[in-house]
Amino acid sequence: MKRIIIAAALVLGFTVAASAQPRAIGGRFGYGVDLSYQHYVGGDNFVEADLGLDSFKFLNVAATYNFMISEFGDGFGFYAGPGAGVGLAVGDINYLALSAAGMVGIEYNFNFPLQISLDFRQHVGLGFNGHGLWTPSSIGLGIRYQF
Questions:
Q1: pLDDT at position 19, please?
Q2: CB within 8 A of 14, min separation 6: which ones?
Q3: How much is the pTM?
Q4: CA dihedral in degrees (70, 76, 78, 83; nearest 10)?
Q5: How far is residue 112 from each of residues 68, 104, 144, measured CA to CA in Å?
Q6: pLDDT tens-digit series, residues 62-91
Q7: CA 108 to CA 79: how far, in whole Å?
Q8: Which of 44, 140, 40, 50 is nearest to 87 (CA)?
């Protein structure tokens, strides 16, 4: 468990320490709650790193590289991208899972430093300790402060 927490802290730390590009931090709420960080790279594309509790039982770390597919209206954008995740059960069962992840969503950037998003994230991976295939999915509402 220490290794997972250290890995999650390193991923978030490297993301935060990256070059001065537009960033956003906030929460992602759905079938659990995540601390969410976005770092824009290469124009409108961005890396999103989330650390949270899925269904309030599983510690989840996920990172996706999202491509801005289309921007429309004033402040709306549609994005999708691949990524990876690590899951760890907390509580009565010991469970570790590694997965590939994918995300698709829509966001709105206000004229002040606030962003909201609605997205769908799917994981497909292997669970260890005899748990087999791990396939959690979630719909999340993101609310982030841009800086």
A1: 45
A2: none
A3: 0.80
A4: 120
A5: 20, 24, 11
A6: 999 999 999 988 889 999 999 999 988 866
A7: 11
A8: 50
